[in-house]
Each structure stands twice: as C-alpha cells, then as structure tokens.
Known about the structure:
The chain is an alpha/beta fold and 335 residues long. It contains 11 helices and 10 strands. Helix 3 runs parallel beside helix 9 (260-267). It is globular.
Amino acid sequence: MRLDRNAPRGRIHSLALDSELLRGNLLGDPTEREVAVYLPAGHDGKGLPLLVDLVGFTAGGPAHLNWKNFGENLPERLDRLIAAGKMPPAAVGFPDCFTRLGGNQYINSAALGPWEDILIQEVVPLIEGHFGCGGEGRRGVFGKSSGGYGSLAHALRHADFWAAAACHSGDMAFELCYLPDMPGTLRALDKKEGSIEKFITDFEAGPKWSSSDIHTLMSLAMCASYDPDPDAFCGVRLPVDSETCEVIAERWANWLKWDPLTMAENNAANLRRLKALWIDCGSKDQYNLVYGARRLHRALTAQDIDHVYEEFPDDHSAVDYRMDRSLPFLAKALV
C-alpha cells in the first residue's frame, strides 16, 4: 500500500544474471538469478548512486518488491522518501541470493557458494554496466538480520568497494545469537534419527513447514556458512557434540572468525574508508542481537571510527520502518 499516493512512481527493471561463480555449487542451486533494479521516476540510472539490498533469511531480493498489507514495499518507500526530499534519488538493486538452505549470509562458503564474490564481481558490475549508476565511492549496501550481517561483513572486508553500509539488527556476538539454538537443533535432528540429510530432505518434501523447522534449517545454514564441510550433506557440520551439545573448540573457532565483533578487532580500520556507516537494533531483539550491537558500538567508539548507532524500542520483527532513517543517510553520503 502506498502511503503517499501522489509520489511519482519509480520503475522496476529486471536483469538476468547467469553466474559463472555459482556454477557447480555444492547445493545444486540455480546459476540463473534475477537482479531487480529500482530507478526513481524521471531517471534512467545514469550518474545515480547505487544501493544494494541484502534481504534477511528465508527471502530473496525480489521479495522486497511484493505488495504489502498495512504498509509499503521498498520501492513505494523509496518513492515517498525521494518525493518528500528526504532522500536524494538513487538506484537500488535487489539481487536474488536465495539458497537451498533457505537464505544467505553473503560471504564466501564452500557449501552455499562464493556469494561475497558474486555480489562484488557479478551483481554490481551487471547493474552498473546496464544503467551507468554507482561506481567507485558511490556504492552502498544495506540489509536487516542476515542481510544486516552481510552488509556489515562487506563493509569490514571490502571498504575499498563499498563506500557506505547500513546494518539493521545484524547477526553478531555469535555465542548469544547462535549457540542458544543448538540444543533445539539437536532435538529436531533426533526426530530424524540424528540425520542432517533426512531433516533437510524431509523439509524439502513439505508440503508444510513449521516455524521451528525453519529455525532449525537456519541453524544448519549457519553451519554451512561459517564452517562448511564440503564432504558432508549440503556442507553442514555442527559446532557442537551431537550427544552432549558441548562446543567443539576447533569448529567454533571457525565460526568466531566470521563474527563481526571478531572481524572488527582485525579489520575495523577498513571502516575509516567508508563515507557512512549505520548500525541499529531493537532494544527488545528476541535473538539477543542488541548486546552484540552494543559491543560493536563500544568497540568502534573506542577506536574513534565514525558511525551512527541507534537503538529503538522494538524487537527483531517487522522493522522495515527503520529504513526511513538509514536509506536517506546512505544516499546523502553517496551523492
């Protein structure tokens, strides 16, 4: 639903990517991907800054184009913000990065695929080559939850490519947001004879999925993202003992290398190159992400790294309204 029915409507263009980097991927995911691109009314894209939307787990970029009840989809939000003069015109890319395991952390994984490279080497060049937008110093990345994690990971690792980033309720402090799910994951696997393969194949057979099943799949996807075993089914390797749920130190150490709090210890200086960095989280986040966000804010402040940090009185769900603050912030920094 459009909140401002008088705002000029931007146009959605659909590009087709046939990813060379995704060929032969372990999960058997399709290499052909849609990359939807929003252009504001009256613009052909040339010379505009480029923002890339990384969506949360269980979604793909095109999902943010869907009609929404009682609220705006993202293009409608962009139309309103630009028409009101709150945000300068910008091109926005919506790549489909969905995987067999239900989502993406947007990093390179021997199981899920080299998604870090796909975004930088294939998706963004496709958009920029077609529309003449973006370019050095004029690219931003944003997202919420897994997408917020991906945006922050890209900012920490590729500040030479991205010039701005926004992380909404992103995954961090892994011992708080992931380890508490491991007992439930083991109980779900016990119902499938302890077999990861049986759980995944039964899940895929459907025809209906419970929220707890989806949560278990997400935990398995994190395993395949942060510490994949290419010889295991779908690359999934647990970081805990399957009988006692004791943390396996070697396995968990590989996870922690990908925790933004760990990456910030080693790569925070890269963030100084950014023109804009936005971090926020709900104070009631049910996945404990606010505690990691506070830690990151404290660490960046101690290193005198410029950023905006905000907490808001809400949880992890239905917080797209926060983009009313972050998207103008990013776009203004990139013009």
